[in-house]
Amino acid sequence: MLALVFERGADARFSARAVLAILYLAYPVTVGCYLGLFWLLKRVDATLVSMGVILETAVGVFAGSWILGEVLELRVWFGLGLVAASVAVLALPGRVWRRPPADPVLP
Length: 107
Known about the structure:
Blueprint: H1 2-6, H2 16-43, H3 46-68, H4 74-91
């Protein structure tokens, strides 16, 4: 939809298949993912859940390469390395910046 605003002079044609794909991604997929995310947050440490969210980027990049034949250039590999490094930092036991447990609230 933003293409209609920013791509002046571009011919925008929406086929029924394209509209259905957008609706599918917008509603069942997004809603399902958020419901799954909230379900996980109730049961698993938020740090572990955030690692899964971060790894979505890598899954999307590799899916684009595999399904669409996109070429993974050096800058893409560099970005994936940064994503992997961030997951590794989150997974490190005893991180320096871990907060101490909160003092219990007395009644």
